[in-house]
Structures are given as C-alpha cells and as structure tokens.
Amino acid sequence: MPTFRRFPWQGPRNHPEQANAADVLRQPPSFNAADGEVDPYELRTRTNREHTVCFTGHRVLGKTDDPALSQLTELLELLYTQGYRDFLCGGALGFDLYAAERVVELRRMHPDVRLIFCLPCADQSSKWKKADCSHYERLLYASDETRVLSPRYYDGCMQARNAYMVDRSYLCVAYMSRLHGGTLSTVRYAISQDVPVINLAVPGVVEEYRQSF
C-alpha cells in the first residue's frame, strides 16, 4: 500500500477514490511558510470564507462514543442546511481525524460538501505509529483537496497551520475539554479574529446553536 508518510499531494483531486502512485510521490512545491511565501495553490483553489468551517481539538480523546463528540454529526448536518460546504481539517491525530470521518459521512448524503486537509508540513506523520498512518492515509485519499503549508517540519508550523485555517473560515468547531495546549491557543486566536467558536465539550451547545437561528 502506498504511503503519505513523507509526500502527500498538493492541490485538489477530481476523483479522490482513484488514487495512484503519481499522486503519492508528488512532493509539495518548494515554498516554505516559515519564510512568508504564498501557497501557489491558494490562488487556483480559493474557498468562499462564508461557506467554510475549520476544526480544532485535542489529539488525545476520551471514548469516541462520548455524547459531546456524538453531537458533531448533528451539528454538521445543521451547518450544511445553513450553507456551509467547505470543511478545513488540520490532519492531526485525535479530534481532527474524527471530524474528517464525520465530514466524509456528510458528503455521502451531500456530494457538494468538500473536505480540505490543511497540513502543517509534508512529513507530519513520519514518526507516527503504523496504524495511525493508515488511518491518516485513508482519509487523505478520501479528501477533496490537500494544502501542504511547508515541505518539512519547523518550529511553529502547527500554529501557522491553525492560523491558516481560522483566517479562511467563518466558523470554528472545537472539542476543548482541557484549557491548555494548541486547541486553547487556536480557540483564543479564533475569538481574537471574531470567528465564532462552537465547543462541543460544552453540554447542549448544538441545541443552543440551533435555537439561535
């Protein structure tokens, strides 16, 4: 089985189910987000911010049947009815990949939904366990587009990825049950940029959001 452990593709996929070796081996362009260069794919695959949602959450989750997590399916259907179509996922272990799975399920019912992976670096999964890599690769194949922000890891690339997603989103869906780490930083950044945050760890938050419309 081919692996994305070093070189995920860069850009959109017209037929994500028809993956091939050329996609796997194509390296991202030589730009480096740390140097302030612009992603060349940003210009040709622009999203409509008003129709875009990003995700942030912990890398270590509790039980996936946690009632807080189970709200996500209901929330995604609700967001679809409100016009959201593009869903940005950072591709990290834990909540990111859980959310990506739910978006793939939503797309089965609504083919105009797009799952877009925004990866901090091409070698994000190079030190992951084999089972985690397999899970990650399966969802990468299922995604509609992949944006790789740097060819390699550098200090601060995760934070740059999080800001990249927030800056292109109209809404942030979080799973934040602990007040520390990258999830908290991302939520704080979203709030500072006037991007509303729905935290699934807050009981009843989906019903409250529903009643606000």
Topology summary:
Layout (H helix, E strand, L loop, with lengths): L10 E2 L8 H5 L15 H4 L7 E6 L9 H15 L4 E4 L5 H15 L4 E6 L10 H13 L2 E4 L8 H11 L3 E5 L5 H12 L4 E3 L5 H7 L2
Parallel strand pairs: 2-3, 2-6, 3-4, 4-5, 6-7
Antiparallel strand pairs: 1-5
Helix pairs in contact: 3-4, 4-5, 6-7
Briefly summarize what is shown.
With 213 residues, the chain is an alpha/beta fold.
Radius of gyration computed on alpha carbons: 16 Å
Question: Count of helical segments?
Answer: 8
What's the pLDDT, averaged over the residues?
80
Strand order of the largest sheet: 1-5-4-3-2-6-7
- Could you give the order of the helices and strands? EHHEHEHEHEHEHEH
Oligomer class: single chain
How far the N terminus sits from the C terminus, by CA atoms, comes to 46 Å
Largest sheet: 7 strands, mixed
Large-scale geometry = globular
How many E-type strands? 7
Helix/strand-derived class? Answer: alpha/beta
Unreliable residue runs: 1-6, 15-38
Classify the helix fraction into a percent range: 25-40%
Strand portion: 5-15%
